[in-house]
Every structure is written in structure tokens, then in C-alpha cells.
Design a protein that fits this description.
The chain is an all-beta fold. A hairpin with a 4-residue loop joins strand 7 and strand 8.
């Protein structure tokens, strides 16, 4: 099993900043991508940003120029730096990781989710 532990959410005023962290642990053979999703009340979970092992990144249009995803491959950790936060960024943010996990035989694909961390942007 591969577990993800998130931290860094909270309450912030509009225009403020937060930094989310996601640490992966367990039977990790290789992590190919890490991503952040968010789910606002009454809406479906949606991709915010992702980063591949080579460093390529992808962002949803609404956060481009404000959010930055990064990754420490040696520590199996991903970060989401969120600047210029807006009330519409309010949501539960979930970390996601995909890759291969170790088994007694051949490495096996995995997809893991974190438990979610609340981000609230309000004055």
C-alpha cells in the first residue's frame, strides 16, 4: 500500500497565500505523477495541477499564474504553493499519486489519494 499524508490547509483572507504538502510513504517502487485535486461543496472533484517525475507540470486555467506545483522526488513529496487566493478557491484539496508499488514479485501499478485538507478563503 502507498499512503499519502497532506498538510497545510486552513483559513486565509482573499489575496493571501497557503502552501500544501503531500508526503507519500509505504511500498513505493516509483512515483510517476503527483497531483492536486479540489472539491467544492456541491461540485465534483476536479484537477488543479499535476507534475510528472521529469518535472513537466499542468494547471487548470483558473489557477495559472497563481498556483505552483513542485515535487521533491527524493522525499516522495509534492507541494502546492497557492498565491493570490480567491474565495472561489475554497474547497477540500486532495493529493493524488500514481506509479508502481513494490510486491513480492513484479512492481504493480497504484493510484492513491490523501484524506483531503480544507482550504477556506474568506474575509
Amino acid at each position: 500500500q502507498v499512503q499519502l499524508a497532506e498538510s497545510g490547509g486552513g483559513l486565509v483572507q482573499p489575496g493571501g497565500s497557503l502552501r500544501l504538502s503531500c508526503a507519500a510513504s509505504g511500498s513505493i517502487f516509483r512515483i510517476d505523477s503527483m497531483a492536486w485535486y479540489r472539491q467544492a461543496p456541491g461540485k465534483e472533484r476536479a484537477l488543479v495541477a499535476d507534475i510528472r517525475s521529469g518535472g513537466n507540470t499542468n494547471y487548470v486555467d483558473s489557477v495559472k499564474g497563481r498556483f505552483t506545483i513542485s515535487r521533491d522526488n527524493a522525499k516522495n513529496t509534492a507541494f502546492l504553493q497557492m498565491n493570490s487566493l480567491k474565495p472561489e478557491d475554497t474547497a477540500v484539496y486532495y493529493c493524488n499519486a500514481r506509479g508502481l508499488r513494490t510486491t513480492r514479485s513484479y512492481p504493480d501499478p497504484f493510484t492513491s489519494w490523501g484524506q483531503g485538507t480544507q482550504v477556506t478563503v474568506s474575509s
